[in-house]
Design brief:
By secondary structure, this protein is mostly helical. The chain has one domain (2-247). Helices cover 74% and strands 3% of the residues. The protein has a two-stranded antiparallel sheet with strand order 1-2. Strand 1 (109-112) and strand 2 (117-120) form a beta hairpin. Helix 3 (64-102) packs across helix 4.
Length: 253
């Protein structure tokens, strides 16, 4: 009797772990390159969620091909949920890059831990602040709730809807770019007015290289703008993150 129950339970747990571990390895703040315990965290989350979803899991298949198909489908769903959360965070990177270009800070490069590549300092700063705010405000729990409710949206054993995943990914990319531009809108207006005014002065005083002289003043004004509007921009991001994270909980209401 135990010889029949134990393999079935091991299979069911590994099926849950496949989806949850794939999602956890991509979640913002948890699946970063500098977080070494994400595999252990994925195991811990799987242990917690396993009793909640056990009744809806399929029985262990007899053929290796069917087993491989089941695990592959679970990994794809987990990657989708983790990637969706990662796309929500990309709005911060867009805003930081636009701000860097508008403030002549684009050449100030540093390692962006959230993107895993070298990027603008302002973009890395906003990404780190965004991750901190998500955890401080408790919005990261919405992501775990979304992973749990994914078993209602996409029951284990069914083929993942790849077309719907692709459409949602396109929507998240476009909306994240839109939100990033909205967050950087004050800097776009400031940069436009600054360069228009500087161009008029350059026409009046053509012998003086005003664009080189005005770069320090532009940076000072950009730092002042960051001080004034950064909190408001991050509130726009948190509202956007919360609205879209709620859609991952049992789907749009």
């Amino acid at each position: 009797m135990l010889g029949q129950i134990l393999p079935a339970e091991i299979f069911a747990f590994m099926l849950v772990f496949s989806r949850i571990a794939a999602a956890v390895m991509l979640l913002p703040g948890i699946g970063e390159n500098y977080v070494f315990s994400r595999v252990r965290l994925g195991l811990a989350v799987a242990v917690i969620m396993y009793p909640l979803v056990r009744d809806g899991l399929p029985v262990m298949p007899n053929s290796p091909f069917a087993l491989f198909t089941l695990i592959t489908g679970e990994v794809i769903i987990g990657v989708f949920f983790g990637g969706a959360a990662r796309l929500l965070m990309s709005s911060l990177h867009v805003a930081g890059v636009v701000i860097s270009f508008q403030s002549s800070l684009a050449f100030a490069q540093t390692v962006d831990p959230n993107q895993g590549t070298q990027g603008a300092v302002v973009a890395a700063l906003m990404a780190l602040i965004g991750v901190v705010l998500v955890f401080v405000s408790g919005l990261h729990m919405l992501l775990f709730a979304g992973i749990l409710d994914s078993y209602l949206l996409f029951p284990a054993g069914q083929a993942p809807p790849l077309d719907d995943f692709a459409q949602l990914a396109i929507h998240l990319v476009s909306s994240s770019f839109n939100v990033g531009i909205r967050m950087a809108a004050p800097f776009i207006v400031y940069g436009l007015l600054f360069y228009i005014g500087l161009g008029i002065l350059q026409r009046l005083i053509p012998a003086v290289q005003l664009f080189f002289i005005a770069v320090p003043a532009q940076m000072v004004m950009a730092f002042l703008m960051i001080t004034l509007v950064l909190s408001s921009s991050l509130m726009v991001f948190l509202e956007y993150f919360e609205d879209n994270a709620m859609k991952l909980i049992a789907g749009p209401q």
